[in-house]
Each structure stands twice: as C-alpha cells, then as structure tokens.
C-alpha cells in the first residue's frame, strides 16, 4: 500500500495504531509528492513522542503487527508543507527509491526495537503508581 501511494505521488499522511506490549502505539508517516518527508511516533501509555527517522522505523515496525488500524489522509501539498514547517522535528531525509521500501519493513513486530525508546522499565506510569498504593481504580 505504501509503495502504491508513493508511486501515485501521494500528498498526505498515513497513520497506524496498534495495541501491543507497550500499550497503544500511534505512527504517522508524512508524504509529499510521493516522497516520505517526515514521521512522528507516540507511545501513548507513556506519553512519549519520537520524531524523524526513529519514528519512521517504529511506524514500519507497527505495520508488521498482527492487529491494528491504518488510515490514509489525502491533503494538499501546501498543507503537507505547513505540517513539516510547524513540526521540524518530524522531518527525515527523503526516501527516493520506492523499490527499497520493501527492505525496510520488518518480517514481524519487534517489541525489543520499541523497548529502546520506552521509559517503561525506568519510570512507572501514573496508573501503575496508583495501583501500587491501592488506588488502581482511579482514572486520571
């Protein structure tokens, strides 16, 4: 699907949402004129944002998950340019060779790759902290 969008000179963004070992993960890949221009990845449970090339690789990893949701949003080239202008951290070097996209996709979802960006082992979430002191049923 990604190769097809790039070949058609797509302008817009693609989102992928999965629920895996680290809770909900959300990836966004930004495309302009058929070139991948930026990426943003969120580990929602930890409220952690990853940008740029790391976010792109994490998004590709999410595509390899067994379950998830993919949405494609077509917008104008100017709107894509605005997204990138106001979110400089998301920018990545253009991936010009569509044929190399296949080699970037992992064979299966790799939780160890995500763990490198996760604070889960270092910090407890608010929910886990409340759960430890017996208030796990309180929503924040």
Brief rundown of the structure:
By secondary structure, this protein is of the alpha+beta class. Helix content is 31%, strand content 31%. It has one domain (2-132).
Describe the structure.
This protein is α+β, with helices and mostly antiparallel strands and 140 residues long. The protein has one domain (2-132). Helices cover 31% and strands 31% of the residues. It has six helices and six strands, in the order αββββαβαβααα. Strands 1, 2, 3, 4, 5 and 6 form a six-stranded antiparallel beta sheet that branches.
Topology:
Layout: H1 2-7, E1 12-20, E2 23-32, E3 35-43, E4 48-51, H2 52-63, E5 69-74, H3 77-86, E6 91-95, H4 101-104, H5 111-115, H6 126-132
Antiparallel strand pairs: 1-2, 1-5, 2-3, 3-4, 3-6
Total count of helical runs of at least 4 residues:
6
Alpha-carbon distance between the two ends = 38 Å
Oligomer: single chain
Q: What's the gyration radius in Å?
A: 17 Å
Number of strands: 6
Main features:
six-stranded antiparallel β-sheet; 6 helices; 31% helix; 6 strands; 31% strand; alpha+beta; 140 residues
């Amino acid at each position: 699907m990604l190769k097809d969008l790039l070949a058609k000179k797509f302008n817009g963004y693609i989102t992928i949402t999965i629920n895996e070992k680290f809770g909900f993960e959300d990836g966004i890949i930004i495309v302009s004129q058929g070139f991948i221009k930026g990426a943003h990845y969120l580990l929602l449970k930890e409220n952690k944002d990853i940008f740029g090339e790391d976010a792109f690789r994490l998004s590709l990893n999410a595509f390899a998950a067994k379950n998830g949701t993919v949405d494609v949003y077509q917008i104008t080239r100017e709107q894509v340019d605005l997204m990138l202008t106001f979110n400089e951290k998301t920018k990545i070097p253009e991936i010009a060779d569509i044929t190399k996209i296949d080699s970037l996709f992992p064979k299966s979802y790799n939780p160890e790759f995500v763990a490198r960006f996760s604070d889960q082992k270092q910090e407890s979430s608010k929910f886990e902290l409340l759960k430890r002191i017996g208030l796990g049923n309180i929503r924040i």
